[in-house]
């Protein structure tokens, strides 16, 4: 049974909203972990504390190859700690920055993996709510892994909280109309567009939230000349970016899997 004293810190992997994430190893067994630290001073409000409790609860109940595993949590006077499976690799944000664009084929592979992840989450009434390249790590074998469940929520009915990252937020989230799992499909549509075009479709380069919301609500999709999506891929993106939440999956996740552009995917 592993404790904080069994661990040594090797290096910093990244930083989060409330602290750093470190590569860490077991002193004797040598297993590697990612240790996410949360500074207690930075979480002195009840809402943030609730969201961390929920992040822990949700991660603890999930067990899927494509979702980051939470092994244990610890606390001391100064910090909370999440001991996480270590993903050796890069996040998709850095991959896009490095490559500029992602090929149609790889984009569809990542999209299919995300559909499988959503199936797992949505069956459990979990809406992720913050799908974006930074929250997806690519492991050494090239498989994506969803990390950071800080905004995920269990919704039996509808959610009204305006949450997420403006460029990836669905119109109904922005409008405070009440939303559900379909908001995740919208974000997937934004991301697939970003893979093949190198930037987001609405409000690229814009940092003012209200300007971005306006662009999202306007919903005009154009493709830069250098992007070469097939017509099937365009129709897939545009289905995911339907204003009507119910149209995004085509009725159900099984229908979404039947989209013509995914015909070569082996769902096993
Ligand atoms: P926050 O919730 O504060 O955004 P994250 O959980 O997203 O924190 O972690 C911040 C960063 O740390 C990530 O973007 C990633 O670069 C790195 N990171 C987090 N978890 C892992 C992990 N399990 N393996 C490797 N790197 C990680
Ligand atoms: Mg994060
Ligand atoms: Mg978080």
From TrEMBL:
Domain named Protein kinase: residues: 7-262
Its localization reads:
Endomembrane system
Binding of ATP, residues: 36
The entry assigns this protein to a family as follows: Belongs to the protein kinase superfamily. AGC Ser/Thr protein kinase family. cGMP subfamily.
Subunit comment for this entry?
Monomer.
Q: What is this protein called?
A: cGMP-dependent protein kinase
Protein's organism: Stentor coeruleus
Q: Which residues of the full protein are shown?
A: 566 to 833 of 892
């Amino acid at each position: 049974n592993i404790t904080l004293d069994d661990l040594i810190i090797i290096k910093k992997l990244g930083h989060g909203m409330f602290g750093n994430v470190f590569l860490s190893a077991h002193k004797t067994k040598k297993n590697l972990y990612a240790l996410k630290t949360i500074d207690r001073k930075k979480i002195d409000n009840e809402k943030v504390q609730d969201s961390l409790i929920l992040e822990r609860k949700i991660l603890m109940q999930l067990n899927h190859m494509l979702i980051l595993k939470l092994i244990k949590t610890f606390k001391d006077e100064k910090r909370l700690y999440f001991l996480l499976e270590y993903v050796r690799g890069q996040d998709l944000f850095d991959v896009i920055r490095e490559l500029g664009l992602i090929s149609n084929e790889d984009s569809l592979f990542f999209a299919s993996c995300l559909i499988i992840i959503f199936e797992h989450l949505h069956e459990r009434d979990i809406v992720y709510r913050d799908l974006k390249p930074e929250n997806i790590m690519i492991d050494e074998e090239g498989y994506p892994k969803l990390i950071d469940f800080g905004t995920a929520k269990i919704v039996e009915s509808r959610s009204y909280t305006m949450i997420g990252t403006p460029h990836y937020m669905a119109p109904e989230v922005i409008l405070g109309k009440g939303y559900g799992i379909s908001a995740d499909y919208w974000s997937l549509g934004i991301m697939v567009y970003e893979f093949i075009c190198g930037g987001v479709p609405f409000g690229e380069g814009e940092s003012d939230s209200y300007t971005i919301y306006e662009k999202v609500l306007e919903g005009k999709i154009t493709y830069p000349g250098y992007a070469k999506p097939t017509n099937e891929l365009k129709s897939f993106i545009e289905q995911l970016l339907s204003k009507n939440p119910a149209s995004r999956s085509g009725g159900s996740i099984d229908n979404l899997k039947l989209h013509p552009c995914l015909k070569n995917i082996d769902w096993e």
